[in-house]
């Protein structure tokens, strides 16, 4: 009964209009006064931020802050996939015939996650990693590979929460929420970087200008409030780090696995 009640409340509050109102306030100068309390509540390391707290013009500007140079070194090993975000892994494993199995008890299809893109055939037996960003985390999204941007797609949708409650109790939020999908070509194949919007996320933004080619660790995009990134690796191209599992914490630039070079 309690879960059904909270699910109903979440359905009612998941409209983009509500998210836009929240986002508008977070972008206003009136929200500046909330920054110290927000940082304290979520245990954010303000000393890691590029600027001092009082230099941020709004809560949103602080939330999407950059970090001081050098705090996120990029793994230098060749053919490595690196984490594009600071996050917790909430799903990881092989894709079986287009199906991602048991992300917090729910299954997803590549078809729905990629909005029926013709490119979905490249991932039907690939590998996936779901990375959840909490409000505590740094919210810039970096390129996980060195490669060329092949295609970008914006998929309109809801803004359900992508936290533990949302993933477990709302119906397939990763494929119902608003998404920004970037397909990239690297030396070993193709990768899809799926950025998933969430409750109170006013938008997902690409960096401007977005280059046609990115090096590992270059800025790709950023969230305005917490959300999730899903990485999809092409069929037969990827070997994960064996130590990684659901619940593992990762930071930008850390190795998630290794690509198999094509002959």
Automatic annotation (TrEMBL):
<feature type="active site" description="Charge relay system; for autoendoproteolytic cleavage activity">
    <location>
        <position position="227"/>
    </location>
</feature>
<dbReference type="InterPro" id="IPR033178">
    <property type="entry name" value="PSD_type1_pro"/>
</dbReference>
<feature type="active site" description="Schiff-base intermediate with substrate; via pyruvic acid; for decarboxylase activity">
    <location>
        <position position="227"/>
    </location>
</feature>
<keyword id="KW-1003">Cell membrane</keyword>
<dbReference type="GO" id="GO:0004609">
    <property type="term" value="F:phosphatidylserine decarboxylase activity"/>
</dbReference>
<comment type="similarity">
    <text>Belongs to the phosphatidylserine decarboxylase family. PSD-B subfamily. Prokaryotic type I sub-subfamily.</text>
</comment>
<keyword id="KW-0456">Lyase</keyword>
<keyword id="KW-0670">Pyruvate</keyword>
<keyword id="KW-0210">Decarboxylase</keyword>
<protein>
    <recommendedName>
        <fullName>Phosphatidylserine decarboxylase proenzyme</fullName>
        <ecNumber>4.1.1.65</ecNumber>
    </recommendedName>
</protein>
<keyword id="KW-0865">Zymogen</keyword>
<dbReference type="GO" id="GO:0006646">
    <property type="term" value="P:phosphatidylethanolamine biosynthetic process"/>
</dbReference>
<feature type="active site" description="Charge relay system; for autoendoproteolytic cleavage activity">
    <location>
        <position position="142"/>
    </location>
</feature>
<keyword id="KW-0594">Phospholipid biosynthesis</keyword>
<keyword id="KW-0443">Lipid metabolism</keyword>
<feature type="modified residue" description="Pyruvic acid (Ser); by autocatalysis">
    <location>
        <position position="227"/>
    </location>
</feature>
<keyword id="KW-0444">Lipid biosynthesis</keyword>
<feature type="site" description="Cleavage (non-hydrolytic); by autocatalysis">
    <location>
        <begin position="226"/>
        <end position="227"/>
    </location>
</feature>
<dbReference type="InterPro" id="IPR033177">
    <property type="entry name" value="PSD-B"/>
</dbReference>
<dbReference type="Pfam" id="PF02666">
    <property type="entry name" value="PS_Dcarbxylase"/>
</dbReference>
<comment type="subunit">
    <text>Heterodimer of a large membrane-associated beta subunit and a small pyruvoyl-containing alpha subunit.</text>
</comment>
<comment type="pathway">
    <text>Lipid metabolism.</text>
</comment>
<feature type="active site" description="Charge relay system; for autoendoproteolytic cleavage activity">
    <location>
        <position position="86"/>
    </location>
</feature>
<comment type="pathway">
    <text>Phospholipid metabolism; phosphatidylethanolamine biosynthesis; phosphatidylethanolamine from CDP-diacylglycerol: step 2/2.</text>
</comment>
<dbReference type="GO" id="GO:0005886">
    <property type="term" value="C:plasma membrane"/>
</dbReference>
<comment type="function">
    <text>Catalyzes the formation of phosphatidylethanolamine (PtdEtn) from phosphatidylserine (PtdSer).</text>
</comment>
<dbReference type="InterPro" id="IPR003817">
    <property type="entry name" value="PS_Dcarbxylase"/>
</dbReference>
<keyword id="KW-0472">Membrane</keyword>
<keyword id="KW-1208">Phospholipid metabolism</keyword>
């Amino acid at each position: 009964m309690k879960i059904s009640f909270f699910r109903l409340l979440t359905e009612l509050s998941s409209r983009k209009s509500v998210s836009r109102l929240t986002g508008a306030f977070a972008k206003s100068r009136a929200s500046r006064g909330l920054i110290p309390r927000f940082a304290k509540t979520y245990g954010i390391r303000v000393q890691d931020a590029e600027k001092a707290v009082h230099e941020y013009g709004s809560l949103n500007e602080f939330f999407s802050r950059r970090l001081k140079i050098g705090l996120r070194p990029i793994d230098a090993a060749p053919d490595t996939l690196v984490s594009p975000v600071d996050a917790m892994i909430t799903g990881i494993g092989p894709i079986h015939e287009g199906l991602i199995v048991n992300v917090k008890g729910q299954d997803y299809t590549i078809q729905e996650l990629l909005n029926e893109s013709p490119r979905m055939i490249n991932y039907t037996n690939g590998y996936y990693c779901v990375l959840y960003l909490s409000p505590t985390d740094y919210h810039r999204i970096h390129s996980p590979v060195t490669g060329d941007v092949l295609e970008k797609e914006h998929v309109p949708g809801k803004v359900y929460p992508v936290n533990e409650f949302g993933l477990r109790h709302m119906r397939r939020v990763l494929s119902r929420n608003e998404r920004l999908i970037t397909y990239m070509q690297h030396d070993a194949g193709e990768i899809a970087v799926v950025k998933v919007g969430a409750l109170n996320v006013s938008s997902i933004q690409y960096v401007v200008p977005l280059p046609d080619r990115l090096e590992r660790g270059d800025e790709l995009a950023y969230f305005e409030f917490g959300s999730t990134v899903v990485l999809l690796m092409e069929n037969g191209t990827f070997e994960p780090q064996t130590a990684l599992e659901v619940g593992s914490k990762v930071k930008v630039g850390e190795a998630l696995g290794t690509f198999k070079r094509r002959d």
